[in-house]
Amino acid sequence: MLIPVTDAQGGDRNQRGTHWSLLLLDRRDRNRPIAYHYDSLGDYHDAAAQRVAGTVGAARVIRMGMAQQKNGRDCGVFLLEAAQALIGQLIRGQPPRDLDNLVPDRRALQARLQRLT
């Protein structure tokens, strides 16, 4: 299960959040699910990821390697590109892997999304 994580605070309009990261919840062992956390700002979202992982019953959270964004606005692009890469790994039967070599491209992502509409 892929879960977007944000640091937004509930329904408070003044706390809309500043960042997005991605959790991959591995439930193959239903008694001890594991969450893999992919964050394009390093450990910025560790607390938020822990909170979300606990909510969905993950026994632990493993921080995974992830390419790092170089600006303050591309976290959503990184999240979507990471999700696509992880889905590809899962389809090929591979375990979750680091995404240090991910090369997100905002314009290429926009073009792919426009083709879907």
UniProtKB/TrEMBL annotation:
<dbReference type="Pfam" id="PF02902">
    <property type="entry name" value="Peptidase_C48"/>
</dbReference>
<dbReference type="InterPro" id="IPR003653">
    <property type="entry name" value="Peptidase_C48_C"/>
</dbReference>
<feature type="domain" description="Ubiquitin-like protease family profile">
    <location>
        <begin position="1"/>
        <end position="86"/>
    </location>
</feature>
<protein>
    <recommendedName>
        <fullName>Ubiquitin-like protease family profile domain-containing protein</fullName>
    </recommendedName>
</protein>
<keyword id="KW-0614">Plasmid</keyword>
<keyword id="KW-0788">Thiol protease</keyword>
<keyword id="KW-0378">Hydrolase</keyword>
<keyword id="KW-0645">Protease</keyword>
<dbReference type="InterPro" id="IPR038765">
    <property type="entry name" value="Papain-like_cys_pep_sf"/>
</dbReference>
<dbReference type="InterPro" id="IPR044613">
    <property type="entry name" value="Nep1/2-like"/>
</dbReference>
